[in-house]
Amino acid sequence: MNRILVNPQIAKTKKVIFLTFTCALLLTLFLPIQNSVATPTTDTPTGVNGRILTANMAGDTSDWVEIAQNGVYSLIVRKNYVNWYPQASRYGNPAWQYTSFGATNSYANSNVRNIINNWFNGCASSAADNLPATARLRDYTMQNNALNVVGTCCNPSASLTNGFSKPTTTPAKTGKDVAFALSYGEAANFCSLTYFMRNLPVANQQSSTIAVANFNKITIPSGYIYGMWLRSPGDLSSTAGGMTNTYSPSVPGRVFQLQLSTESEHGLVYPALWVNSAIFETKGTINIIHKDATSGAVLSSATYSVNSGSYGPYNGLTFSDYDSGYLASNSAPASGTIAAGETKEIIYLYQRLYTVNVNNSCDPQTGSGQYTAGTTVTVSAGTRDSYDFSGWTVNTGGITLANTTITTFVMPANNVNVTANWKIAPN
Fold first, then answer.
1. Which of 184, 214, 353, 410 has the fewest C-beta atoms lying within 10 Å of its C-beta?
2. Which residues pair with 386 in a beta bridge?
């Protein structure tokens, strides 16, 4: 089988060099320079028995597996390797999709890094995998420091505690090194069956329950020794970090190192990403708040979890001594669309209603009722047989009324009580 696989690799190497140069030039010319920003407070992510991000939710051709978290961000790894070889008839054939790590064990100068960058930025050619420009993943991917934190291999005192990448708080839909290969420490801690430690009595150590669970969610082809390239340099010359499949029963799923060349060990490329954990949400959140328009006091509130897509309408409520309400200027619309993981806040404002009582009036339309502050209110005494109107008495409310049977006043922010006065008309 090795004899059959040698010739394709010669052709593959030439294509990698050409594609790498072309895509690197495009990225240099057209992608924005990304400034670093403050990162989450912890330097060490927490391993999790992770969720599956389906291909449909990701907008990719492969599922993704969550293996660790850092604050509100998740470290995810592609379940299936990237098909980088451009010939359609070789798609899905790992014998054509494995690659050498590079001329040296430097991840910065490696074929692995170039293939991942080409895939993420849509620079791979022909039948090769490209992450679609409209992929949902791009709405959640974050800048990170993986390129500068490669870690070490097989060192009992260091390799399990170094090489941890960390997201920044800056989203990055495109760009170099947004996607990256896992390190030895990330694979050993979060996604593996075993890991190798040099100079220990037992060299092959059992991975954690979490790491085992996550390893069983990814797919490294079987039937032959295939592996996943890691970004950590090996501790022996001509090696780089790698994790094998379960082909060898003595050391299945082992994080160790692979030879840089392609023919002795067959390394495949599996991108990893830091994403906002909201990407796993399938529902949106609607917060509805009803407030006093003047004081801002909350009259009522409710939260609803809704499926992504259309929502509403969410209408105002009825409150005693308040008007019917209206949407605040900073409110989300009462109906519309919402994305998975999105939160919308619908705010209704209500004007307080104050009471006007008109006593001793002979007009059916006295003006008694409820009004908002600032409203012009008309009160009427009407007419009364054998009596003349003699004026108004303001019992409460602090307003001033003209001495006419029909008069107006501006409603204050309190209740008003008035009385129409009458005197017997002269014969």
1. 410
2. none
Pairing of strands 194-196, 254-259: parallel
Whether 374 contacts 394, CB under 8 Å: no
Sequence-distant (≥ 6) Cβ neighbours of residue 17 within 8 angstroms: none
Q: Facing residues of 379 across strands?
A: 407
Closest CA to 134 of 202, 30, 45, 59: 59
- DSSP annotation of 322 reads B
**pLDDT tens track of the chain, all 427 residues?**
232 233 344 344 434 444 444 454 444 333 333 333 444 558 899 999 999 999 989 999 999 999 999 999 999 999 999 999 999 999 999 999 999 999 999 999 999 999 999 999 999 988 999 999 999 999 999 999 999 999 999 999 999 999 999 999 999 999 999 999 999 999 999 999 999 999 999 999 999 999 999 999 999 998 888 999 999 999 999 999 999 998 877 789 999 999 998 666 789 999 999 999 989 988 889 999 999 999 999 999 999 999 988 999 999 999 999 999 999 999 999 999 998 878 999 999 999 999 999 999 999 999 999 999 999 999 999 999 999 999 999 999 999 999 999 999 999 999 999 999 999 999 7
Regarding beta strands 369-372 and 353-359, do their DSSP bridges make them parallel or antiparallel, or are they unpaired? antiparallel
